[in-house]
Specification:
The protein is 46% helix and 14% strand. It is of the alpha/beta class. The strands form two sheets. A five-stranded parallel beta sheet has the order 4-5-6-3-7, sandwiched between helices.
Amino acid sequence: MKTLPALPASVRTLTEDEIERLRKTRTLPASPEDCPTCHGRKTFRWWEKDRGILPQDRVAVDYVCSCVDQFLLHRYLMNSGLEMAAARHRWADLTALSPEVMAPLLEYLNDIEFFMLQGTGLFLHGMNGAGKSMFASLLAKRVLQLGSYTVRYVRFTELLDHYRSSWRDNEQREWFEGSMRNAHLLVLDDMGKEYDGVLRVAMSAVDTIIRFRTQNSMPTIVTTNLDRDDFQTRYAKSVNELVTEACRVSEFIIDSSWRASARNRKEIEYAQRVTVPITFG
């Protein structure tokens, strides 16, 4: 049976404080025996190869599960805000974008350390379901894989919930704001999904966090379903300029068959009894 590649040296065991903080909001496997991939079966089925191969042409084979690695990597990614779906995202699944859309993204990806040192982020906008969040999570995992950087991946609605409730807990508020201010890479996912009643909070949060990061040349990735004009209308010109000042802008345009293709891939995985493991992509 096959095995997944060994984890890079960048993956570490979380501290007790980090584990306790996660447990306040997440249900964590208690030990490798409660493996998030094989769930104690010690084996799972996965593709022999998937890169450069269409889903319908992939061959499923048995893998020996490295439960300890899956357990550690699950916690390590979750500690940076990458939930299970993002932990399972693969570059092989990001198939909907045209070469013209992918070219500047690959340029950024292939020279990621240069852009990070320059404080240059990404503003990813476009239609719903186009792969913006998937690309952002894969990029975040690539940065973590390098081993020298910290990442904070935050859904924007979660930021707002935490931003408001954290006023009741100064220690938690300081940690959450500090983690966003000081991470080497911050991802703000799905701006524009918040309801109008918290818009003022949204603008205040963006102004406080992004202004600090821009002034200190720290890159931020923003994803939104809003187009450029709607984003500026919703958040005002000053916030729009603040968000996009140090970001390369990319519009995600996909083929209309993308959602059908994604559903088809899932159906193939179900039919083959495939389990997507936790990987860096």
